[in-house]
Amino acid sequence: MRRSWLVVVLLGVVIIGVSHRQGDAAEEQPSPSSGAAEAPFRLVLLGDPEWSAGTVRPALQALGALNGVALEVREIPAKGRPLEEILAGLVSSDQLREQSGYRYGAVVVYGQAERLLVQRKPGVLADNLQVLSALAPRVLWVLQPMPRINAALEAERVQVLERAGNFPALLPLSSFAALSLIQKLGGSASWINDLTFDRATSLGDFVTAILIAASLWEIKKLPTEIRLGSGASLTIPEEALPVLAQLATAVHTGELALPEINWDYAPELAEPVQLRTEQGPFFYNGTGMVPSLFDWQGDGRPELILSARGTGECQVWTFNGSELGSRPVISWKMGSPNCPWNTLSGNEVTVFQVLDFNQDRRPDFLVGTGTGELVLIRSRTDGTFGDAEKFVNQKGESLRIPYLFSAQLGHLHKELTWTLVAGDQAGNVFLVFQQGSIEKPVWTAPAPLQIGRWELQLEGATAPAFVDWDRDGRMDLLIGSRSGSIVWVRNVGSEENPAWDFPLTLVTPIAEESVLPIPHRGNGRGELWRPCPGWSPCPIAADINGDHLPDLILGDVNRRVVRFRDLTPEERAEVESLLKRRDELLPKMDHASAGEESALRAALWEVTLALLEKSRDRRYERCSWVWYLERKVLAAPRP
User: Fold this and answer.
1) Is the CB of residue 170 less than 8 Å from the CB of residue 215?
2) What's the pLDDT at 513?
3) Banded pLDDT at 80 (limits 50, 70, 90)
4) N or C: which end of the chain has fewer CB within 10 A?
5) Contact (Cβ atoms closer than 8 angstroms) between residue 345 and residue 335
6) Could you say which DSSP state residue 342 is in?
């Protein structure tokens, strides 16, 4: 109900914002550099800064006073409330009473770091940014330090904000980038000890104030002393002033950046290789590929089981790295005489996993249906298979996960009981625990995966899998999502009480051409038709090459490209020229002003159309591929 009310208010806010933008904004709101005492620059700080000593406000006021900017600073603490609840009250009390113009010169948001990473579905965040953009022409989102922060994790937070939508008013401000720059410039100076990611200090608050102020106006002078109230003051070390001045300049000119993180795949992973047969890349036509591993032949080496989503088709293949055998060991199709899941006909059926549920060294099947039910099909001693056994709770009722997308069984706890992890099509992940005996198991109600205070929610359909990715003896989770990404959710608890860390991306989301939905990676560089891991990947992990490190196998949904002919040398030269032009345009768009962006988009559109025209003799078909990504090292290096 609260969200519905906020959307109604949002419509009014958007109308107000559009009306204001059509007028003369300069008459409504003075520039912060004007220093006009009669019209102070109004700044509002939203939320509770967890990495703060409570002195950002006096630091901002000191910066404003020294640089001729009259500031009116308002602080609205969160007190445990989510941002949308703060905005609902702010819009109601402030914006709707002021029926024209922006209410503030700028809004500063102290975001909840965990929520950005855990709730990656952009809907709520986009709603928040829409309201914020109507309250002020500038929205500064301060990304504060958090546990185990590094450049890769910080890049994740920035990407989450940027992918929520096109909000020209939004500017993420990274405390990590600021402190990294200061530590680099300051070297071993003693005052650097007062700037650490581990604790908040008044000097750290001054750095936050510089981030905010330098984003709004040019800082020409820095104070050497800041009055904090009650007779207390903060003295800025003289030797720190040149370094802090460089920080202010870097923020103001837009040159403050994270250490460069530019990978489609985590640095511990090799480039993906398509699994192939003698005839070429293996694929299913349809809506998804689901892989699993099982030692089908009992020779100590696992076979690869590849299932088509929703059709009930399933095959067992021998494989060696990226090469599949010449033909499947065994194959099933719904309706064929030997298919173990024929009794489920009439449903969309997916074989999610082949496993030894009974611990009798025989293959059993975990199967899901289009109605959200899960069934177990056990093998018999004579090589046949038993009836489909529905997962049930203690009352004997069928376990059902609405909009079920993927599921897998694994041993999460020390005891050899099973845990089911399942993902739905809305981006949620659930854990279900076995009770009762192996012969007659019952299952707990699905519980959302909790990370700190938040329930994990990714973008679109999720496919979770168990694996000890960091080899610490505890089962972690790898989770694929509709966007094409794979995230690693590390288990930082114990065998008795699992606990989950913030997700870190191993495979980034795909890019997508707007003319034809063709996935590509590498910021659009390279041929548009070059195959790459696509949408809704289903991950599994195991030591494939014998180096004692878990490698990654993905099944996806993609576009298969059939070539009718190769390009001539002249056509190839044209393509290379177009790709070079594309490479020139893409970085320009990242730093384009509002006036330049439309022209750059038009130029990029022309290049894209020309590239697509060069591919007119190629055919695109929906299909599912499977990929092998070799693990090169145990852990990603800390940038």
Assistant:
1) no
2) 64
3) confident
4) N
5) yes
6) G
pLDDT of residue 516: 64
Look-up of token digits 């032949």: 297
CB neighbours of 434 closer than 8 A, spacing ≥ 6?
417, 418, 419, 420, 441, 442, 443
Of 319-328, 417-426, 442-451, 616-625, which gets the smallest average pLDDT?
Answer: 616-625
- Report the chain's mean pLDDT, rounded to a whole number: 86
Terminal-residue alpha carbon distance, the chain: 43
Token pair of 144 as six digits:
């504060």
Q: Among 374, 446, 358, 365, which residue's Cα sits nearest to residue 407?
A: 374
Angle between helix 202-216 and 56-66 (nearest 10): 50
Q: What is the pLDDT of residues 498-507, one digit of tens each?
A: 999 999 999 9
Name, in order, each residue with C-beta under 8 angstroms of 12's C-beta and a sequence gap of 6 or more. Answer: 96
Share of the chain above pLDDT 90, in %: 54
**Dist CA 467 CA 439 (whole Å):** 25
Residue pointed to by tokens 């009992």: 298
- Give me the pLDDT at residue 20, please: 32
pLDDT band of residue 175 (cuts 50, 70, 90) is very high
Phi and psi at 97, nearest 5°, equal: -85, -25
Token pair for 137: 């022409």
* Residue 213: both structure tokens together: 């102020």
Q: How many secondary structure helices (H) and strands (E) does the chain include?
A: 12, 37
CB neighbourhood size of 469 (10 A): 24
Please report the beta strands in 275-384, taking only residues with DSSP state E, as ranges in sequence order: 276-277, 280-281, 283-284, 289-294, 303-308, 314-317, 319-320, 323-324, 330-332, 349-355, 364-369, 374-379
Say which residue the tokens 């509709």 belong to. Answer: 482
Per-residue model confidence as pLDDT tens digits over 434-490: 998 999 999 999 999 999 888 999 989 999 999 999 999 999 999 999 999 999 999
C-alpha 302/C-alpha 319 separation (Å) is 9
Long-range contacts of 221-225 (CB under 8 A, 24+ apart): 221/66, 221/67, 222/63, 222/66, 222/248, 223/62, 223/63, 223/66
Angle at 447 between CA 340 and CA 419, to 5 degrees: 45
β partners of residue 374: 368
Q: Which amino acid, one-letter code, is at 392?
A: V
Greater confidence, 15 or 201?
201
What average pLDDT does this structure show over 525-532? 69
Angle at 426 between CA 423 and CA 429, to 5 degrees: 30
Give the mean model confidence (pLDDT) for residues 617-624.
81
Distance, CA of 88 to CA of 84 (rounded, Å): 6
485's tokens: 């990404």
Identity of residue 69: V
Q: What is the pLDDT of residue 6?
A: 37
